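Subject: Sanity check before I submit

Could someone independently write out the structure tokens for this chain? I want to compare against mine line by line before I put it in a report. The sequence has 268 residues.
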Amino acid sequence: MNCKNCHTELHEQDDYCRNCGAKVIRKRLTFKNLFEHVSETFFNYDNKLLRTFLQLFKQPEDVIVGYINGVRKRYVNVFSYFALAITISGLQILIIQKFQSDFTFYDTSTEIGVQQQAIFDKVNKFTTEYQSLVMMLYIPFYALIAKIVFLRTKAFNYTELLVVFMYTQAQISICVAFFTAIIIPLDLMSFATYGMSIIPLQFFYFVYTLKRIYKLNKLQMFLRTMIFLGLLGVLFILMVIVTVILMFQSGQMQEMIEAQKAARAALL
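---
Independent answer below. Compare away.
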């Protein structure tokens, strides 16, 4: 008998390959053992993925600083975790696209309301389609802001701060996707309220993580948070400018302008 993964010769009583460590599979694939495999992979407490997810809430410094200092086996590495978050965000986009037509923010019984709703739909479609790109673009800016805010603290360099925000952004994205799968289809909250509630939650999680990895007291963290907010405001303005440029290039901005002109003409 040989290992199906690396083809190393095995003994009949072996349960794991002595070369690659793969588990020896003797049973044919059925729904029962497929479900057992999925459960063991994703829901076992000793599993890396679940352990990483939980620990990023309880003790984020254990995962993040541990990875920076060379602990690479205990938790899911930052690139795999971030790739997983992007994949899950893709599923989130499918959910939003399926149910977003059910969310109306303007009175569509009037011509003006129809035009306003059309503008919103175009903006929402654009931001939804480019969500993964935006998520990746934010990280270098977050790391730069943190580097400026903690300039006198030499604990982490810029590259290490990229790791910090890749983990934290991935964690937020996974949580948002999970709640999207519940809140949006069941219509538990208006889409606008849900979208706005994510922003402060994301910010507080960033603050919480930075406080723990830098081991700061409340006053130190408050002062740095104020600086971070100011720089984040500048970042937000820059991102709005980039978004507008992308919308101009895609032609969606011109469509919005035409829709606004039509709405104004209807008022007259």
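---
OP: Matches mine. For the report I'm noting this point. The chain has a mean pLDDT of 77.
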